[in-house]
Amino acid sequence: MTIIVRRLWFFLITVWAALTLNFILPRMMPGSPTAALMARYKGRLNPAAINALQAAFGLRTHESLPQQYVDYLNNTIHGNFGLSVTFFPSKVSTVVLQALPWTLFLAGTTTIIAFVLGTFIGMVVAWRRGGVVDGVLTPGFVVLSTIPYFWLGLICIYVFSISHSWLPMGFGYDENSNISLSWSFIQQVAVHALLPALTIIITAIGGWILTMRNNMIGTLSEDYVRMARAKGLAPLRIMVLYAGRNAILPNLTGFAMALGFVVSGLLLTEMVFTYPGIGYLFLQAVDNEDYPLMQALFLFVTLTVLVAILLADVVNAVLDPRTRSRE
Amino acid sequence: MVGRFLTRLARGFHWRHLIPLALVLALAAGFGPASGASSSTSQVKMGGVVTIDNVSGSTWTCGFNPYTQAGSAGQAFSAGIMYEPLWYVNALNNNQRPWLATGYSWSRGNRRLTFTIRTGVKWSDGKPLTAADVAFTYNLLKKFKGLDLNALWTVLSSVSSSGNKVVINFKKPSVPFFYYIADQTFVLPQHIWSKIANPVTYNNPKPVGSGPFLLKSCSNQNIVYMRNPHYWDAPKPYISEVRYPAFLDNQPGNLYLAQGKANWGGQFIPNVKAYYLARDTKNRHIWYPPSTSNVQLYPNLTAWPTNILAVRKAISYALDRSQISKLGVYGYLPPANQTAIILPNYKGWYARGLANKFNYGYNPSKAISLLQAAGFKKGSDGIFRDNKGRKLSLSILNVGPFTDWVAEVQIIVKNLKAIGIDASAENVSGDTHTAREEQGHFQLTYDQPGGGPTPYYMYYQMLHSANTAPIGKSAPSNFERFRSGYVDGLLNSYSQTASSSRQHKIIRNIQRVMLLQVPVIPVLEGIYWFQYDTSQIVGWPTPSNPYATPPPYNYPDWAVVLTTVHRK
């Protein structure tokens, strides 16, 4: 139990450090939100508008940095992130909450599917290493995972949406219908997510296969596996419960981190498939020097990753007795 | 603007939309081809849908505050279409027509502007729109600086209403502000906005407006407008619905347009002939008219060597503008001329004889002889040096993410090297570019000023000393740091007169300054991107009937287009 308490302390300190970095880093960026906005509206915005914009964004505050820091911590604890500059005058929380479900749905499910499938395939190809399955699947998926995502996405759109109108080419749902909890809407969401999900899984699965295969080959040469074979246990049982269970441990931490990063969104997917989500928000926040939005997003990602790692530590402690033995 | 669309290069195609296509074919078979020009009202068919394709690079937040400019917010989705201005001024040709006002007059030596407000106009909640609403709107901009995007209250002193008249008093005569006051200010309902504590941060999710369209639905990926059945200018609008899907990237946006899912585009499409036009040569059209300002080189007039007139002239002669256009932007942007007058838009203002006399144009040998006459000598490396031995090297500040601008400046660099100037491009991020321009930390910078319905707006921004500042201080638009009492006087007297002939004379004199002193070097004319599909909807702006600036991203002009187009 002490290990978990120790981890919790460490977690809290990391959160504070992350919060502080999150405050400092955006303020060290050159430029200003108004300059970014003027740049974006080149030739269309009356130069006189800069005064109006500065007044609107509240950029003429003369608060000292320590005072800003205290306000920032206080607001963060209360979940008050202020108004976004990019989506002015929308609240940061509104903007983030609008994009978050799409990201959680698409990135979450694809990460889980890629991990489960990849781990399973990695286990099988390691069990039958050198065989036909290993010879085809392993290099095949590794090659697929190195394809530039943008290119793969466009090829998929070309094949599935243009040459054959099987799947829609973009958007999270049919662009002319409204969000509702009807069966037809859920169907739309599923159909629209198919192509993006497919491309993500194809490119992500190779990594899981490779690491699982390597771990598995290591454990397969362990004595307890040889012992299990000598006892005459069923091969399936040896593969899954003896070798697989131990080989998966290092992968679990990787999976926890991947889950944590799910909330940072899928920038390229969102751009290629015009899919709503957090990834593009990130890009826009940075492009537009949108400190409030940037702070909220970075904080959100950091917290999720930290929580995921904490959970992975706990799971590891439960699965692997060695991590508990230092007491 | 140009750059914003060009930065996202297009790459693909889009899927089919079979049912509307079948409908189109059926309709096209039944009715003969209609010209783009507006036909008489009796023949106009009601109904139909316009789908807009304009990549904004963000999803919608469903806010309709017509005084918010940032990101996907407010103004671009409500100005004109929901909240209307008093008077329409077409930036293409300065043609005007009444909107919420039925007339106006200048008095007291152009210090007072009086509008007569249209009667019988109703807000979409049924309450009448009155002169009090109009006065309220202007006074709201005074109270909340964050709303006053065109800095109206730098010249206004008071606004009041009585009966159906609105009286606007000026601190000093400022005739060109008419454009901002009448065309770029959007009337709000007092009974709603007076109750809003801070209209600057008000998102306005449920807009109550007077315009031709009402909000039907909005999600983060699409806005749908429906026809306002009680619009004051009935039977307009003729179409029943407007859809505005959100695209994050140019490539899916272009695909959508090419597949015929949208019929009104404001997109940069590489190789538009094969990609867009060829798929339906009968119904698909493009028109890229010049906009209101040039993409140009601003030389730093406070530092060697760009403070030397001969160097600036040599640069202007060295530029092969048609090649810059061809290789930089597929030839879509026409070459500019040294007077900065946009042709053909401002042809009535153009001092043709004067321009011909100076005869600026691609002439590298003339450029070289100008530099030689100014005392520059070529070194063994082929680069000019002055008599102190300083190498004539120039760095051009440019916006890295604007791929079209980067391509254009590459050719400019080549052109300058060809005459013996050691030129190079410095591509930086958009906000660094803006910041360094404003502070004056550059040798040459590539940028496009804002414009208006006459050349005055562009000249005022780039030449008036009110818009400049010493190096290290922020200059809003006169980045080159041009200061001339003569030009200030010309621009000031322009703003005091409503007489067209005097205005023309002033603009002519400014052109002479452009040719004599070369304070700025125009390179290409800015354009509007405009693609349209006549298979279902007709009545779009055309070169022969340029009734509005045609792209969907220009407001309030898009509302003029949307109230003119109709079903085929």
Quick summary:
The complex is a heterodimer of chains A (about 325) and B (about 575). Chain A has about 325 residues and is mainly α. Chain A has 13 helices and no strands.
Please tell me about this protein's structure.
The complex is a heterodimer of chains A (327) and B (568). Chain A is an all-alpha fold and 327 residues long. Chain A folds into two domains: 31-80, no CATH class; 95-326, MetI-like fold, CATH 1.10.3720. Chain A has 13 helices and no strands. In chain B, strand 8 and strand 9 (222-227) form a beta hairpin. With 568 residues, chain B is α+β, with helices and mostly antiparallel strands. The radius of gyration of chain B is 25 Å and the shape is globular. Chain B contains 18 helices and 22 strands. Chain B has a domain at 291-527: Dipeptide-binding Protein, domain 3 (Roll), CATH 3.10.105. Chains A and B meet through helix 2, helix 3, helix 5, helix 7 and helix 11 of A and helix 1, helix 7 and helix 14 of B.
What topology does this entry show?
The complex is a heterodimer of chains A (327) and B (568).
Chain A: H1 2-28, H2 33-40, H3 49-57, H4 65-77, H5 92-127, H6 132-146, H7 149-163, H8 183-220, H9 223-231, H10 235-261, H11 267-272, H12 278-287, H13 291-319
Chain B: H1 2-6, H2 18-30, E1 49-53, H3 75-78, E2 87-89, E3 96-98, E4 101-107, E5 112-117, H4 131-143, E6 156-162, E7 165-170, H5 177-183, H6 190-193, E8 213-219, E9 222-227, E10 241-245, H7 250-258, E11 264-265, H8 272-275, E12 284-286, E13 290-299, H9 309-318, H10 321-329, H11 352-358, H12 364-373, E14 377-378, E15 384-385, E16 393-399, H13 403-418, E17 422-428, H14 430-439, E18 444-447, H15 455-463, H16 485-496, H17 500-517, E19 521-527, E20 531-533, E21 537-538, H18 557-564, E22 566-567
Parallel strand pairs in B: 1-10, 1-11, 16-17, 16-18
Antiparallel strand pairs in B: 2-3, 4-5, 5-7, 6-7, 8-9, 9-10, 11-20, 12-20, 13-18, 13-19, 14-15, 21-22
